[in-house]
Specification:
Number of domains: 2
Oligomer: single chain
Number of strands: 8
Shape: elongated
Length: about 325
């Protein structure tokens, strides 16, 4: 029961990030240190030709709250050429959302200039940011697996990429889950990959850790017949249950409530999974991508939890039988 409560809370906690598709806010000090400026984008990974919102917050560095009544201007440049700008503008609440549509992939420099605070003019202070538009190598690659096996051309990395692109992302259901997954994965994987590349011991650890995943995905791929939504769901549910069983059984053993599987726990698990499947169906009919991202993530988390619970209960039974035999 506790496992599913935790999974439910995790789904509620990640809902805002997935529903908004907003990047993590980057906060920097202005060049003269008077004010902090925060920048985030909606969606989290801007693409050329698609509407993007630049969300800016002016933050009082002492109170860590939005600084009211700020005059500011903005310039967006690429390759030292200004492509967009906002003239001197006032915000009473200390935040602004600017819509813009980037036309090309690449790195853009965003300069936010502050000219006035609380109706008091100040010498211009600037906060500078860089954002990447389009599918750069990080937003498309299996970073940790590439660092583990030393090359994007390694067979293991190629299989992971092929499974993602041709199996999971062949339907809107799978694409929605990958979008949600990427929002989390690419928030930490670049750092881990950078550390791992120069650490042979860590590379061997990840090779050992990834091997069960590769086996699981091979099994899931064999269970997927066709590329329609049902096939992708079946494959994904099998992979999720096996991942939970293979990787999270120690957590189940530590939680005493997960050592035995009762009828009520099975009913709860089936109910949660069924609800998630119904929400996926509704979001598909409504063509609501945000709801689809949340529901597919909830489905995966609930099935992972179920797999962990069942495997830990089975292992606990074996341990108890061994104890009885030797005692």
């Amino acid at each position: 029961m506790k496992v599913f409560l935790i999974l439910g809370l995790m789904t509620l906690l990640i809902f805002p990030a997935y529903a908004q598709e907003q990047s993590e806010q980057l906060v920097v000090l202005t060049d003269k240190g008077t004010l902090q400026v925060g920048l985030s984008t909606i969606p989290a990974h801007p693409q050329p030709g698609e509407p993007t919102k630049l969300k800016i917050n002016f933050i009082n560095k002492d109170t860590n709250t939005n600084q009211q009544h700020v005059d500011y201007s903005i310039s967006v440049t690429k390759d030292d050429n200004q492509i967009f700008g906002i003239p001197l503008t006032h915000t009473a609440e200390g935040s602004a959302t600017i819509p813009y549509e980037f036309q090309e992939t690449g790195t853009y420099q965003i300069a936010v200039d502050v000219h006035l605070i609380l109706f008091q003019p100040i010498p211009k202070e600037t906060a500078s940011f860089a954002i990447i538009v389009g599918n750069d190598s990080q937003s498309n690659g299996c970073l940790i697996a590439t660092a583990t096996y030393g090359s994007e051309l390694a067979p293991q990395v190629q299989f992971l990429r092929e499974f993602r692109d041709t199996t999971v992302m062949s339907t809107s259901v799978g694409s929605s889950f990958i979008s949600a997954f990427n929002a989390v994965y690419y928030s930490f994987s670049p750092t881990i990959a950078d550390i791992e590349r120069n650490n042979p011991i860590l590379q061997e650890f990840f090779k050992t850790s990834i091997t069960p995943l590769l086996v699981i995905l091979h099994v899931a791929k064999l269970s997927s017949i066709g590329s329609d939504t049902v096939a992708v769901l079946t494959s994904g549910m099998m992979a999720s249950s096996l991942i939970g069983a293979a990787y999270l059984w120690p957590i189940g053993l530590l939680a005493k409530s997960s050592r035995e599987v009762s009828r009520s726990k099975i009913i709860i698990a089936v109910t949660v999974i069924s609800i998630m499947l119904v929400i996926i169906l509704i979001s598909s009919l409504m063509e609501n991508e945000q709801l689809m991202m949340v529901s597919t993530s909830g489905l995966v988390l609930s099935i992972v939890g179920t797999g962990a619970m069942l495997s830990s209960a089975a292992i606990w039974k074996v341990v108890q039988k061994i104890k009885i035999t030797f005692l």
